[in-house]
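WP5 quarterly update. Target: LysR family transcriptional regulator. Source organism: Undibacterium jejuense. Length: 304 aa.
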Amino acid sequence: MDLRKLRHAVVLSEELNFARAAQKVNLTQSALSRSIQSLEDELDGKLFDRTLHGVSITPIGLRVVKRAKELLIDANNLRHEVTLMQNHEMGDIHFGVGPLPGATFLPPVLAQLLNDYPKLRTEVNINNWNALLNQLYDEQLEFFIADVHNLTEDKKITVQRFSRQYGGFFCRREHPLVGKAFNNKQEVFEYPLVSVRLPESVNNELHKYFELAADQKFELSLTCDNPTLLHYVCLHSDSVLLSTYPVVQTEIERGTMCELTMPDQIEVYAEMGIVTLAGRSLSPAASWLIEKIRQYIEIRKSDN
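C-alpha cells (predicted):
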C-alpha cells in the first residue's frame, strides 16, 4: 500500500475538489486523478464519485480515509522514532557481558551511556559465554562481550576480538604465601583456588604450568561468575584468586590484595570479543555502545 496515494485520498476527502487538492499535494489534476484511480483499482472499490459539480466520497471511501489517516499518523510516528533511535534518544538495548568485562570496562561506559542518553532503555545480562551464546541464538540479546577463548566461530555468528586481559594469582595482603620463597609452584595447592569459570584452553595451560600428571585435573575449590563475591572470599580467607589484572586493580591500588610471585610466570589471559549474529545490523545505540567500549579500552592502554 503506497502511503502517498493514501495521503492523496485524505486530502481529496478534505477538499472535495480536484483542483484544490492537487494544489495542496503539489500535483497536476491529471496526476492526482491517476493516483486516486490507481488506489481504487488496488482496493477494487470506488472511493469517490465524480460529478460536474465536484467530488463526493463514497461509504467505502469514508472507511478507507479513516484508516488512511491512522496509517499516516503511525508512519509519521515511526519516522520520528527512527530519528530518535539514530540520535540515541530512545530505544532498547539488550546485550550480555561475561563476568570479567562486566567487572572492568563496562561500568564506566554504562555510566556515560545513562548520562548522555537517559531515555534509552538498557538491559544487561551478566553470565558465562556459553549461556550468552545460547541467548544470542534465541535472539534474546543483540550482542554480547565475553572471553571468547572457547568460542568456535560458525556461520551463525561473527566474533570480533579486540582486547586481552592478562592474569595471575592474587591473595589478601596478610596471606601466608605473601613474600614466601616457593620451592615448588604446586605449594599454592595447599590453599583453596577460586576463580570464574575458566575456558578449556586456560585449564590446559594451567595443567601444563603446574606440571600435573596426565590423569590429574586442574581443579578450583570455588567456581563463580561473580567477581565481587570472589573478591570478598579472597579478602576474608586464605584462598588464592586466579583473575585478570584489570579485575583486581582497585584492590591492588588499595593495598588490600597483592599478586603472588610464582616461581615461573604464567601467561594466561582472557580474550575479549564482541559476538553478534552474522549478517545482522546492530541498532544505532548498540553500535554507539560498542564504539565507546573500544575507545575506553584504547584510553586505558595508553594510560598504562
